[in-house]
Structure formats: C-alpha cells, structure tokens
C-alpha cells in the first residue's frame, strides 16, 4: 500500500494526463479515419476528446505546482533580500491555497447541480457530472501540491538550501 501511495504522489497527475492525451490522440485519429476513409463519422469522438483535454488541463494544475512550472514575475523578488523573498513565497502559497479552495468549493457546487439535474451531453447522452468532476479533482490536487510545496519551503529553511522558485 505504501508503494502505491508513493507512486500516486510521484506520478498521479502526470499518468492521468498522459493517458488522457494518448486516448485523445487515438480517438481523434479513429475519427479522421472513419470520416475520410469510410465516409462515416462517429458521433462521440468530438465530445470524448474535449473532455479528455479538460481532464488533462485540470490535472495539469497539480503537476505544474509539483514541478514548479508556474508562470512567475520575478522583477520584484530579484530586488529583495532572501528573507523577504521567502516571506513572499509563503504568502503566495497561502493565497494560492485559498484561491484553489474557493474554486474547489464552486466546482463542487456546479458538479452537484449537474448531478441533481441529471444533465447529459447532447451528442452522446453521457452523464455530465463525471466530466464536471475534473474541476474538483484538479483543484483538490492543486491544494495538496501547494501544501506540499509549502512544506518543501519549510524544509529548505531548515536545510538552508536555495529556494524552490
């Protein structure tokens, strides 16, 4: 069980995003072949690809936080002393957690509403709440990864390493 949790911690977002993008590519290629070779388009690939891309994008939140691939403007932090930069990193991390928590709450509400109304997709009839779960899952991963990043900042302070950012 410990190995599974360790693997999930290391690769969850990356594995799901890669699987979603691989499935998206295969299904889109299938649709191209069906449309241009067999002259018969399938009704579901467009929606499937859209939702695979959405899941990949939302899970990218946690992946980018974990790998420190977020867009940053360092103009001000380059001028500040290291202690002030560390304070700004903590403040930025805490604000990010609050932001993701608000988005998590809102996305849960939207998903619940979609579930209660029994909303289905127009072309395929698939239940939409499963696709709307991408938001809560992505924002929850964002919160978890941001907490891990803040813990990493604390460990750096103890070890007196270079900043993560």
Tell me what the structure shows:
- It is a single chain.
- With 165 residues, this protein is mostly helical.
- 75% of the residues lie in helices and 0% in strands.
- The protein contains five helices and no strands.
- It is elongated and about 65 Å long.
Short synopsis of the structure:
The protein has 165 residues and is mainly α. The protein has helices spanning 2-36, 45-66, 82-117, 129-132, 134-159.
Determine the strand fraction and express it as a percent band: under 5%
Total count of strands: 0
Spans of at least 5 consecutive residues with low confidence: none
The coarse overall form would be elongated
C-alpha end-to-end distance: 32 Å
Structural class: mainly alpha
Share in helix: over 70%
Mean pLDDT: 88
Number of helices: 5
Largest sheet: none
Summarize the SSE layout with pairings.
Elements: H1 2-36, H2 45-66, H3 82-117, H4 129-132, H5 134-159
Helix pairs in contact: 1-2, 2-5, 3-5
């Amino acid at each position: 069980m410990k190995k599974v949790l360790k693997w999930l911690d290391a690769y969850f977002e990356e594995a799901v995003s890669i699987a979603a993008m691989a499935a998206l590519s295969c299904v889109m290629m299938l649709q191209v072949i069906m449309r241009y070779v067999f002259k018969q388009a399938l009704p579901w690939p467009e929606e499937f690809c859209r939702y695979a891309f959405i899941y990949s994008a939302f899970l990218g939140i946690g992946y980018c936080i974990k790998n420190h691939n977020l867009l940053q403007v360092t103009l001000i932090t380059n001028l500040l002393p290291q202690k002030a930069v560390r304070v700004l990193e903590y403040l930025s991390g805490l604000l990010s957690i609050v932001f993701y928590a608000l988005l998590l709450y809102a996305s849960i509400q939207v998903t619940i509403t979609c579930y209660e109304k029994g909303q289905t997709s127009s072309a395929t009839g698939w239940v939409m709440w499963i696709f709307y779960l991408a938001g809560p899952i992505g924002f929850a991963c964002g919160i978890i990864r941001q907490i891990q990043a803040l813990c990493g900042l604390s460990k750096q302070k103890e070890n007196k390493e270079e900043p993560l950012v």
